[in-house]
Amino acid sequence: MKIKKAVIPAAGLGTRILPVTKAMPKEMLPIIDKPAIQYIVEEAASSGITEIMIITSRGKSILEDHFDRAPELEQKLLESGEAKKELYDSIMSMNSLANIYFVRQQEPKGLGHAILLAKEFIGNDPFAVLYGDDVVTGEVPAISELCDAFEKYGKCVVGVKEVPDEIVRKCSSVKADKITDNIFSVSDMNEKPLPEEKFSNYAIMGRCVLTPEIFGLLEKTERGAGGEIQLTDAMKVIARTEGMTAVEFSGIRHDMGDKFEILKACIEEGLRREEFGDDLKKYIKQLAEKI
Ligand code: UTP
């Protein structure tokens, strides 16, 4: 069954990168000229997803504004003719990416709690989850790789990357048995494991495909790590009973909730940009000689 719906949880407080997130959602932080949330919505849309629910929270209405029409701006760009045509087209193309709906999480009770708010929107369909602060860049949209695995193996899917111990302990580790080079069968997982508790160095990285069964499990999930209702605690039940699939997606994941990762995302994306990629390369080389 083709996945047509996605949930983007974007209601977190972003405490790791304060003070910028005091009044500014981390999902609006730019990589060059595009906010994180737009990269993510574009990834979903280019994977065939047509209905997207974004979970926001107090102080994040700028996310709604970003996907709304901007008549004065559109008119001004249009009047500038050829000179601003490319900008006009890029602004207008955002209007037809997908149908986007918003709901507010009233308290930051965790990722699992945020996903639960999409229960009615999802109904009986399998759906994709793309974390609002995880941008993945690359040739193939990461969520399409997970959707393909869902169709092929018929089980819920998590996106993973192999990471060093110091990263695993901040994420969720999965018990993974190799099926192909980048696909694994998952029989267990845990959130923020201590070194002796980790199942493997494969950690969940901001992308999943789930069935509505997850909502019943989330409703029964007690607060876990950090006092929050954790999505991993509910997915763990599925992994242990029916099993899940993990896909090590091909793109590069950028955690927009981490200061150093944001810096790296801007540099890596900058190097890919035709307009100044070569200049940036020169600049980095000059700088490297001085440090
Ligand atoms: P994170 O744990 O990375 O986000 O959640 P956070 O809570 O903002 O992190 P800190 O404060 O810097 O440690 C992963 C995803 O889940 C969303 C976040 O917005 C992010 O996209 N989230 C998290 C919610 O929507 N609601 C929550 O209550 C918590």
Topology (elements, then pairings):
Elements: E1 5-9, E2 30-31, E3 34-35, H1 36-45, E4 51-56, H2 62-66, H3 71-79, H4 85-93, E5 99-104, H5 111-116, H6 119-122, E6 127-130, E7 134-137, H7 142-153, E8 157-162, H8 165-168, E9 172-178, E10 183-191, E11 202-210, H9 213-220, H10 231-241, E12 244-248, E13 252-255, H11 259-272, H12 277-290
Parallel strand pairs: 1-4, 1-6, 4-5, 8-12
Antiparallel strand pairs: 2-3, 6-11, 7-13, 8-11, 9-10, 10-12
Helix pairs in contact: 9-10, 11-12
Bound molecules: uridine 5'-triphosphate.
Q: Pairing-aware structural class of the strands and helices?
A: alpha/beta
> Mind summarizing the main beta sheet?
9 strands, mixed
How would you describe the shape?
globular
Parts with pLDDT < 50 across at least 5 consecutive residues: none
Distance between the termini: 53 Å
Q: Strands of the biggest beta sheet: in what spatial order?
A: 5-4-1-6-11-8-12-10-9
Can you give a write-up of this model?
The protein is of the alpha/beta class and 291 residues long. It contains twelve helices and 13 strands. It has a nine-stranded mixed β-sheet with strand order 5-4-1-6-11-8-12-10-9. The protein has a two-stranded antiparallel sheet with strand order 2-3. A hairpin with a 4-residue loop joins β9 (172-178) and β10. α9 crosses α10. The longest helix has 14 residues, at 259-272. The protein starts with a strand and ends with a helix. Bound molecules: uridine 5'-triphosphate. Uridine 5'-triphosphate (UTP) binds at residues 9-16, 55, 105, 108-111, 113-114, 131-133, 257.
